[in-house]
């Protein structure tokens, strides 16, 4: 079989589709939404390069028009990425949107979302932690371009030797995916909640998610009549939920959008975040938000959300009580949050991604 001409290969840009088969988290959502938005953007342009999404057979590929999709045999896991994907991508620029990349490939552009595995290692299983601590510095060193999701993440990555200071291009996430989902208008009642009589947060066992702070806050008698509704099933090790805390289990996006819209306030107490997607989603749906003054949250949400200390539950209690007693304050905070959130679109993020790829340059090579 005749191989493709070298100059044609150089004009083709590939996307690492491993995120389609990885366990779904915020990182995978970002990669998917960036790919979808990039496809819409490319459909309006007449660029000289071609784009192709490489994925494992059977992966849930989103509908795409400008980006072609190609199955590469294998499971879609780490071994697939480091071997089968690497072979399929040789000679082409490969855009990796979900932290990892084939280490032998010489034309990677890699988006690394945060440095949490270094900053909060206890939040991750040992094997995951060891792999990321080996892989991320090597991938960054070999990459043609390094991307991340905030200036904060860029600083933390550089602090751990992942890229040089100022090297990583920060591309803020979009939020408007949540508006593509019709809300499940029965969800709030079905879950036994009352509009604006519950605060909403995410359940998580990872220490840096800092759920223990909210559990302590909800033992304050001033919040006895207000429910803390937690999306998910996990609590931190050794923690128990007070009687006014509800674990809602896993919810789909339709139910989540409805809960965002009807909550008194959305709470996000993480001690560090690379970006902080959930509070932005909540703000876009009309909820006021209170977040930790930590990680990337001040960078992204200063002036649009209440900024609270991540190590003291008292200000969180005070804020929730104030929003309960002062509807005008709640409405003002919700309006400020929504005004910020509407500016964070995936179209904007995709345009920045495309610009970054072009800036890094796409040249022929053996990869």
Quaternary state reads single chain
Helix and strand pattern: HEHEEHEEHHEHEHEHEEHEHEHEHHH
Please state how the strands of the largest beta sheet are arranged side by side.
Answer: 3-2-1-4-5-6-7
Strand composition percent: 5-15%
Count of alpha and pi helical runs: 14
Helix content: 25-40%
Shape estimate = globular
Largest sheet: 7 strands, parallel
Distance between the termini: 21 Å
Rounded to an integer, what's the Rg over CA atoms?
Answer: 21 Å
| Chain-averaged pLDDT | 93
Number of strands: 13
- Unreliable stretches (pLDDT < 50, length at least 5) are 1-9, 363-367
Structural class: alpha/beta
What secondary-structure arrangement, pairings included, does this model have?
Layout: H1 6-10, E1 12-16, H2 26-43, E2 50-55, E3 68-71, H3 78-89, E4 93-96, E5 108-111, H4 116-119, H5 126-142, E6 145-148, H6 151-159, E7 169-170, H7 187-190, E8 198-202, H8 211-217, E9 227-231, E10 245-247, H9 253-262, E11 265-268, H10 277-284, E12 289-292, H11 297-301, E13 306-308, H12 313-325, H13 327-341, H14 346-360
Parallel strand pairs: 1-2, 1-4, 2-3, 4-5, 5-6, 6-7, 8-9, 8-11, 9-10, 11-12, 12-13
């Amino acid at each position: 079989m005749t191989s493709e001409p070298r100059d044609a290969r150089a004009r083709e840009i590939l996307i690492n589709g491993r995120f389609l088969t990885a366990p779904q988290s915020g990182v995978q959502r970002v990669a998917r939404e960036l790919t979808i938005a990039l496809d819409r953007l490319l459909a309006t342009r007449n660029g000289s390069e071609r784009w192709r999404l490489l994925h494992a057979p059977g992966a849930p590929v989103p509908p795409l028009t400008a980006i072609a999709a190609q199955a590469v045999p294998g499971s879609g896991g780490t071994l697939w990425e480091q071997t089968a994907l690497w072979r399929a991508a040789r000679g082409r620029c490969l855009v990796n949107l979900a932290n990892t990349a084939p280490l032998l490939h010489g034309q990677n552009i890699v988006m690394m979302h945060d440095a949490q595995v270094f900053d909060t290692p206890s939040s991750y299983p040992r094997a995951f932690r060891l792999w990321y601590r080996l892989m991320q510095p090597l991938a960054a060193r070999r990459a043609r371009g390094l991307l991340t999701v905030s200036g904060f993440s860029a600083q933390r990555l550089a602090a751990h030797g992942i890229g040089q200071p100022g090297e990583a291009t920060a591309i803020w996430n979009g939020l408007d995916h949540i508006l593509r989902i019709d809300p499940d208008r029965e969800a709030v009642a079905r879950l036994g909640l009352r509009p604006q009589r519950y605060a909403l947060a995410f359940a998580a066992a990872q220490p840096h998610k800092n759920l223990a702070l909210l559990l302590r806050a909800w033992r304050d008698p001033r919040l006895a009549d207000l429910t803390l509704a937690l999306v998910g099933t996990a609590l931190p090790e050794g923690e128990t939920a007070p009687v006014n805390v509800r674990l809602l289990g896993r919810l789909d996006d339709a139910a989540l959008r409805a809960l965002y819209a009807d909550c008194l306030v959305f709470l996000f107490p993480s001690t560090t975040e690379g970006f902080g997607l959930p509070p932005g989603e909540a703000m876009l749906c009309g909820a006021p938000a209170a977040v930790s003054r930590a990680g990337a949250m001040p960078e992204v949400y200063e002036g649009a959300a209440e900024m609270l200390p991540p190590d003291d539950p008292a200000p969180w209690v005070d804020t929730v009580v104030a929003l309960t007693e002062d509807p005008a304050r709640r409405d003002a905070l919700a309006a400020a949050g929504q005004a910020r959130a509407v500016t964070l679109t995936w179209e904007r993020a995709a345009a920045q991604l495309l610009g970054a790829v072009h800036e890094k340059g796409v040249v022929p090579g053996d990869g």
